[in-house]
Write a structure and sequence with these properties.
alpha/beta, 11 helices, D-Maltodextrin-Binding Protein, domain 2, Arc Repressor Mutant, subunit A
Length: about 300
């Protein structure tokens, strides 16, 4: 084990194998490219074997590297399992809780809920991670995720707490034109960028033959919302976001084919942790009380 060296050196092997590059490994570990290069060299020299092949496409594991990486994965898995089991013995709602959600949910819905939770549980420090990607809860990147999903990951446990309705929104003049002519294709549209991977919306817009009218694309819901406010076209937005904005109006009823379920998710090993349980119960009750807002019942079509 002395030849293998410190755990931090072993983590570098796994980080390079995962990212395929020294710079990618450095970003994931918070280290510089030079530090990753130096420590990998020291480890290979200590072991007397080459762990990676260096090629134009990046770093790939050698046979020896595969053995080391497999061992590191097993160790990491055991360490994370132990952390979750130990965390599960906590009986008091205190400590740090890391919650991940999307930018639009945070800005349009969750900030007041988080403020109320912090006031109700002053012994819990809330850390909110905004990302439109689902963090790996198995690796403790977050403790709880609040996500719209039609099929949440099977490895997680959770509750469906509400349904998010979607509808078409835009400036009053564009919406009036669409409603008067009963023609969605008579105005410009705002669409999701391919990096957003919003395939449900892409399918709906294709079915409506709106692709040729999409003159502006952006890779976040908040970006689409902002573009609609600026008059760049109509956009499909969550009702909780569009109905709360007095600068835009809704063109018709919510679109049932674009409705999505809202989930509270955590890892099974964490569901009995006091602070996690307290947050799940608090958030579930609060979000169920927001169903009218989420379903678009408060503001009817123009």
């Amino acid at each position: 084990m002395n030849r293998l060296g410190k755990w931090d050196d072993l983590r570098i092997v796994l980080a390079i194998a995962t990212s395929g590059s020294l710079s990618g490994a450095g970003r994931s570990l918070g280290l510089s490219h030079a530090t990753v290069f130096r420590r990998l060299g020291e480890l290979e020299e200590r072991l007397g074997v080459q762990l990676f092949e260096r090629g134009r496409s990046g770093y790939s594991l050698t046979a020896a590297g595969e053995d080391v990486a497999a061992a590191v994965r097993r160790i990491e898995s055991e360490v994370l399992d132990t952390e979750r089991r130990v965390a599960g013995r906590d009986l008091r709602p205190s400590g740090t809780l890391r919650v991940t959600t999307t930018d639009s949910l945070l800005i349009g819905l969750l900030s007041p809920l988080f403020a109320e939770f912090c006031a109700a549980y002053p012994s819990i420090t809330l850390e909110v991670v905004v990302s439109n990607l689902l963090f790996n809860l198995s690796k403790r990147e977050a403790d709880v995720a609040i996500r719209p999903s039609s099929r949440p990951p099977e490895a997680l446990t959770g509750r469906k707490v509400a349904t998010i309705a979607q509808a078409v929104y835009g400036p009053p003049d564009l919406v009036s034109k669409v409603v008067a002519n009963d023609d969605l294709r008579g105005v410009d549209w705002i669409a999701s960028d391919e990096r957003m991977a919003y395939w449900q919306l892409d399918q709906w817009m294709a079915a409506q033959k709106l692709q040729e009218r999409c003159r502006y694309r952006v890779d976040t819901i908040l970006g689409m919302h902002s573009a609609a406010r600026e008059g760049l076209g109509l956009a499909v937005l969550p009702c909780y976001l569009g109905d709360a904005d007095g600068e835009i109006v809704r063109a018709g009823e919510p679109l049932p084919e674009l409705a999505s379920d809202l989930w509270l998710l955590t890892h099974p090993d964490l569901r009995k942790v006091a602070r996690v349980r307290a947050f799940l119960d608090f958030a579930a009750q609060a979000l169920r009380g927001m169903q009218a807002t989420l379903s678009g019942e408060f503001r009817r079509a123009t």
